Fold this protein.
Amino acid sequence: MNSPDKKNLADNQPYKIYEFKKTNQSNISGYLVVSTAKLNVETSEDNSKSYLSSVANKKFFQSNDGEAEPSAQNMIEKIAKSLSSSPEPEIIINIHGYSSTPSDTETGCQKIYEYVNTHIQQPNKYIFIGYRWPSENPIKTDESGNFRQKLINSLSSLPTLLAINLVLGLTISIWSAIVLLFLNILSNSAVHFFTAMLILFGIISSIIFTLIILRISTYFRDTYRASNYGVTDLVELLRQLDCTVKLPPNKRIKLSFISHSMGCFVVTDVIRILSDVFDVKSINKKPDSDIGNVFRLSRLVLVAADIPVESILPGRANFLRSSLRRCEEAYIFCNEGDLALRFTSTAANYFSFPARTRISGYRLGNITVKHFNNKNDLVGYTPRYGVVNLQIQDSDKGYRLDNPYKYLEIRSSNREHRRLEEITKISENSVQPADLFTYFDCTDYKDEPQKQIGIVSDAIQKPAINLGNYIFLTWAFIRKSINNRDAQGVDTHTGYFEGDFSQKAIYELAFLGFQGFLHSLSIEGEELEQIHAFSQKCQSKQIQVILAPQIYQEKTPD
């Protein structure tokens, strides 16, 4: 029987760990790690008692046949044992984004687990970990209740000053409107007075209603949870593994990440914390990939990243620059038509992000690749797909990968689009943050060219998506939200995980790396031949790629 101290320790553990069920075809172990942080700080009972019970679905996870649920420490020891016995151990962690329910996370992680066990035949090498931080969906029911309950909570939790202003503003506005409508005998000065009162207190009420809407959207609440719960609990998990796994000095565990939306904020902050700021190599801006006692940062895949474009710009303000250098490979999947990032995220971050211009406030998931030959000729442009920054120096062997800043841009209309090299000062003599990433611009991506609509946008192959296009794209997004099987619907934010090629690229780049991904596409040969074959494959899918110079170094003819 456990002592009270041990029981309290178990009840207050920062996360719980569930193991995915294995089948006869399973050769990769999988786990779901769930943060036990509460959605609301007032919740009296431990989050793991009610909230986590809905996560551990018997359909997906190993059951204990009525026995006590294994502690997180026991599960960590089990994972550590598998890693220690593996000749080339690797951990791949998947992190969900904003407004994800427990069911969404569970289903998404199960999908990845089934995919890798079907397509990646390397037993005893990988361990897949799905990580859930406490996110809240604005509409769906969770610990915070249904939408009606959330609205009641939003009103009841209003600070006293805002509540007084709301009641006073509504009351005066209503009475002023009644007076203006029914009392025509008022003098001009009285009419002016009541009109001014109606406008003034109407504005006050509107501002408070805007704050209530922002709260109901849960965006800022999720940002707080991601920063204070999601990041810290994941760091603690890795710290526990780092202390538990025993490896010889010359052996390291490769650590890779797949992250989506706000999950990209979680993973970049985790990498930043894991990077040792007192490491001499880090101070000299030449850090290696080794962190802690046993880990080595390997691959980073950011999908629809809800982090500032600043993260790939050079300069003092880029707080991720040194830590992201530690990753051996890094990838960004982006889309100009991502409505969640283009409108919702930028509007929400308008209040807090320190940008002077609108174009600097866009998110990394909205960055795009220039895809027309002459930006001044918007009528006769020619889209260019495949590896855009490949420059051939010799027909046989010579090539180089051009500076990504010349091709990456932020677009919001035909008139408002600027290349990154126009936004910031670029030094050609040193490695810049953008050089560390390979970019997949999926704005026009289609699995089958004959289809009328794309995977994450309308795929209209225009120099920029304008207001009219966004209206139609919004309608397609709504149709997809209502009926997931609607052939004319488009999921602009999470559709990457539904497309055949994009899904394959995301999962296999994370598990296998770039060379392994090329091998899965049956691409062999010399380096230039590989790049050409890969470029043609992306061209057939209408995807633009900026290949990271660090993956293929410049090669001049003999």
User: Anything to note?
Assistant: The longest strand covers residues 295-303.
